[in-house]
Amino acid sequence: PYYEQQQYDMDFEQKAKVSVVEYMHMIELKTSVLLAGAASIGAMLGEASESDCRSIYRFAIELGLAFQLQDDYLDVYGDPAVFGKKIGGDILCNKKTYMLINALLRADEAQRAELQHWMEATDYNPEEKVRAVTALYDAIGIRELCDRKIASYFEEASRILTSVQVS
């Protein structure tokens, strides 16, 4: 159920180390499976073939992964007026996102120490923390890495969708 996956997401905040594989699995269970279930039910109700129902399900899994990564990306790089919420919320609560996990993996020693400093800090200016962590993401190349990963999920979703046999 969704609530279990939401708890899984919240547990990541307390966990010292989260792998990219664990994170991607969590967002698949939290976001993609719900979307995939709804899409495949629609396909079944529309009397799609079994093969097309499987393709629609897989399409929605890929789309859900892209969506969640895009949401994480926008939390750092989005325009608050367009995004609909304040930027940097994930950074402020040390949420283990695809971006933070990869930043910790790819950072050099000094960058990793600075990331750890901000993650462990209890008394800080929120805007300063968001600016500092975002600057680290930029220096490490996390923005581009995330852009490429989002694009690859969207491309795979599109490829799968074009394989569906509909008139």
What does this entry show, briefly?
This protein is an all-alpha fold and 167 residues long.
What would you note in describing this structure?
This protein is mostly helical. The protein has nine helices and no strands. Helix 2 packs across helix 3 and helix 6 (98-106) packs across helix 9 (142-162). The longest helix is centred in the middle third of the chain and has 28 residues, at 50-77. It is elongated, with a radius of gyration of 18 Å. The mean pLDDT is 91.
Q: Write down the Rg.
A: 18 Å
Low-confidence stretches: none
Helix fraction bin: over 70%
Helix-strand pattern, N to C?
Answer: HHHHHHHHH
Q: Which strand-content bin applies to the residues?
A: under 5%
Total helix count?
9
What is the straight-line distance between the termini? Answer: 34 Å
Q: Which structural class should the secondary elements be placed in?
A: mainly alpha
> Can you count the beta strands?
0
**Main sheet record:** none
Based on Cα principal axes, name the global outline. Answer: elongated
Average pLDDT over all residues: 91
